[in-house]
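User: I need a structural model of Elongation factor Tu, chloroplastic from Thalassiosira oceanica for a docking pre-check later this week. Nothing fancy, just the predicted structure tokens so I can convert them on my end. Input:
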Amino acid sequence: MPSPAGKISINDLRAEKGGDPDHYKHLLSCADPCDTSPTVVDEALALDAKRRSKLSELEDMRSKLSTLQKTVIAPKKKAGLDCDEDIAKMKGWKADIDRLSTELKVAEKERDGSLKKISDALATIDVNSDGVSAGCRSESGESPKKGPQSPAGPALQKDSPKKQTKSDSSTDETSLPLLQPEKIKQIPPERILNLNVGVLGHVDTGKTSLVKTLSSVLSTASLDKSKQSRARGITLDLGFSAFLLPLPEHLRKETMVRQEVSTGKSDATKKPKNAWNIEKVQKKETETELQQRYDLLQVTLVDCPGHASLIRTIIGGAQIIDMVLLVVDATKGIQTQTAECLVIAEMTTRNLIVVLNKIDLFPANEREERLRQAEKKMRNALRGTKFENAQMVGISACVGGEKVAAVGQDAAACVISSTNNIHGLLNVLQSQMRAPNRDTQPSPERFHFAVDHCFPIKGQGTVLTGTCLSGSARPNDLVEFPTLATQKKIKGLQMFRRKANVIQQGDRAGICVSNFDAKLMERGIVAAPGTVRLIRGAIAVVRKAGFSKGGVNSGAKFHISVGHTTVMATVTFWGAREIARQAEEHLAAQQQSVVENGESHGKSSLGGSADLAGLPRLRFDWDQDFLHQDNYLDSLPDDTDWGGRSSHQPVGKQSEEMPLHWARIEFLTPVYCPMDSLVIGSRLDSEVNANACRLAFSGRLVERYDAKSDNGRLRSYTKKEKVGTVCRLGDPYKRGDDGKIVRYEVFGTDLFKKETNMTQFVGLLIETDAGDVGIIQSSFGTSGKFRVSFPAGTEVREGDPLYLRFKRYANDPRKAIRQDGSVPAARTGSRVDPPAKKKKGNRGGKGGGNKAKSGGAASSSSHVVRPPNGTGARPGTGDACDSEVTGEIAKLKDGPTEGGRPTVAIASGLFSMEDDIGKHRGRRVVALSTDEEGAVDGSFGKMGKCKVLFKGGVSAEVGSKLKMMPR
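Assistant: Understood. Predicted structure tokens for Elongation factor Tu, chloroplastic:
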């Protein structure tokens, strides 16, 4: 309640706003029972009801006038239609609006006059330390009424400890154990460790009331001080306030990785043998550092709006915090904006406390059980997030209902109602605090400052309030406003209205500069000169938000938030398979580095910490190939090739979190931000009232990207596959290493059209279902058939499929065919002779009988052939072969001799396609079945066949064996 000299607010009298009109009536009546002054409370409430009625009528009239102008008059004027009647109606409504405005001012004046009467009357009342008028005590000295603190009480409940009866369960038994600003004025601000705690939650869950209850130091932007916030009764902008505590003991011993570990201080220079030793060293270093650098702990509360339409402000506020108080209405549980705030917290912080507010609305006899049920439901909602084991505490920040927090411009004007279990919340908060990851050696060259408010102070200059994200700054340092392309010198620094000589990472501060128009900048960045550049696009490591439903499509437009800036951008996703392997290697290397050196990476330079969002620091390789993706992959499939067989072990373990992706972010409006910043992608154009999370993904900016110059550098490809059929097999061979019957040469069809130019496909790899790899040697005939050589052999059969698999790059103007892999090593084998065909009829002579005698059995040649080499050479004698080679008669030609026998036999198997048969002209050839001799007379076709001339004729039939003798 306000002090007697303070101005009372109408909300102190309105029961629906948490006020207690009966209490004020009682105080006024106790002052003078014969006085009729208590009726002034009813008078004030009636006048306020009249004022609110006039205000509602005025707003309705303005809305109707706006609708008439936009939907009726403007379209008619544009269409050239008559709208005189509508204009006359508009003028009449404007007159009504003027009248209502005048009446509203009169009503406000009458109400304020009534409130002044109450304030003046209360100023004359003698109030004791319990906040009860002395005239209202009974003879026994007991107060006849227990209720909220009276107007004559202290300005803040925590400023004046008071004892309360245990029967009053709705209030704390003692005041809050917070240090007051006047008690620590002798301590320099740089000796105070600042922790930023974000207060997030759904609208109307009591966030601002909680902040009001805890805060003892207020900034120029705190507790809904804007007129619009007070008029609408909700938080519309970020609010900043703070309270101070002694530095908790566990923070002095907090385990953190510090740069001192690797710079050679104390025993930390010794390389620890395992992770336990690292922890031991880190504890020692941290304890020493915190004790030397800090004396007190300041908790800065960042009060974020809860309304769905203010999600941009929530995202900006959440990116400057160290931990989160997630405020939940215990009677309603998790709501839409609660889920969105939970997603934001996962992206921006490692620590969260769930505050179940409004437990006073539970009946006293059911409160414990109802609170336990609320905790259980919230625990189920947290399952699958990194806050599964988050601490929960039930409180009532304002027993009896919410109150408008800001009724003045300083802490003395703030009214605190009764609370429940605030001490329990403070105990949990202190136990869960962790030492922040701050720069151990902040440098002015890395100074980045996120500005959230900007306003002028007459005679001083312009003040920029915000949070130092990295580096440090001092008075007289030169800073740059990147968005305005201007530089200013720092005139002075303040931290919560206290002069500071230096600010560093994590500090909430105000920067005063001169000759700067505050209207030019509401929010943005102030940085060391030249450290923040304008970017039009970037490549980022991204991960989809856990609560995001539906697909995240490549090429779609998203709202991208970087710090306090939100712009539209087109986003394309790719590389899920490739980045998974890279992330695994990075994690292993990072763990090894920590084990060996005790090093870890620090905080991101803008917009929260991408490390806390689970986004590793990866390097983008412009020369790496990436398989094309149409959209974001919610789960990472097994790494398989075209044929469905696993070509690698599954990449990583399949966890509940979404897989990492590379993303190309092309900003529609260029932004100023450094690399390594955290970005958050959202669908803010979605329906506000839809029960869906609008947060889509988080990301870390890795590399600048310019669509004009860098688009052709990205090596994104799609897999292509053409399927042919084996139409003919080459000669069979028995492979030497496993004894299998294989073919080193096969012929295929159905892969190319008749008119296809085969030159571009010669040398490409062909695969079979069994995984055998061959190489295209040439075309075969003129009907689109082709010849394939398998250096290691294949067991493929006629009719089996042959696969031509290749890559095609999206940015390749030639659309060239590219393949990975190589021809396998050659595996030798010996040729297997097929069985000779039986003689259908005796064509005369002794030779026929001999042919028939040997025709029923299969024989195998004993010579060993050379397997094809890497170029696909077919097994054969070769030009340098001087040993005996066996072939067979494929065809008989020319007319019979005098004896009735053909003189020319077409032989196969004696040469390969690569052999120069002309060099072997005249070599002696013997028909094994008839012992008839002939000589090589030249080649026949292009398949390695040759003509053998038998001058005396040959009686052997087709299929009979031939032996080519050595030279």
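Before docking, keep this in mind: The chain has a mean pLDDT of 74.
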